[in-house]
Amino acid sequence: MSQSRLSRLPKGISYWLGYRSEPPKPLNKYHVAAWSFIAAFGGLCVLQSIFNYSHYFKARHVPGIIASYGASAVLCFGAIESPLAQPRALIFGHFFSALTGLCITKLFSLIHDQAQFESVRWVAASLSTAIAIVVMQLTGTVHPPAGATALLPATNEEIWELSWYYLPIVLLSSSILVACATLFNNIQRRYPVFWISPPSPPKPAPPKPEAPPEEENTAEP
Q: Where does the record place Acidic residues bias (predicted)?
């Protein structure tokens, strides 16, 4: 969603989606630290309460939180201006990495001997994260914590047992974190800086044409 489109929305909506007609005033480091603490604590509490206290998710043995989202909180609440923390990178970086990790680990699980599969899961984990990095680079969705999201199907039995249900859980977790980030960060800061792609830098002003040199007066007095 571009800034020009956000500007067309009512101010009460565009403000909470990160639009500012003028750059916000910078906060001192103590205010930034305080808001980072409040936002991270609130966002992670919301995320964990949904999965820990919902009978729907508990019946499906969904963990209270996927560990990689702790690292995402550092970016989304503590480094909110970083391109790596923006919604596109957060949502699609985690999703593509989860998909990559599942596909690679399931390929390794085709080994009929369970003991042999267990002995090479570390290879699947390494390959999953390596491929996920490339996928994120090619799609412009690099989000460092998502490397762990790719790693988990091969290294964490609880995640592996979720199978393909891991994908909607990751997608929901990312969406909840983005919603919390837009709520808490926009109280006195600004998030996101962009939704889909970074704003284009302003075009430089065209150079002023040089004034023609004055003709010398060669006439004799």
A: 212-221
pLDDT of residue 127: 97
Q: At 147, list the tokens.
A: 């490397």
In-domain check, residue 195: no
Find the largest Cα–Cα distance for the chain. 109
What is the pLDDT, as a whole number, of residue 219?
52
Residue 44: domain span: 3-19+26-185
Distance between CA 11 and CA 23 in Å, rounded?
Answer: 15
What distance in Å separates the CA atoms of residue 62 and residue 121, rounded to the nearest whole number? 21
Question: Encoding tokens for residue 142?
Answer: 């690099």
Residue 51 near residue 132 (C-beta atoms within 8 A): no
The candidate with the shortest Cα–Cα distance to 47, out of 65, 27, 68, is 65
Q: Is 19 exposed, middle or buried (0-12, 13-18, 19+ CB in 10 A)?
A: buried
Asked if 176 contacts 50 with a C-beta cutoff of 8 angstroms, the reply is yes
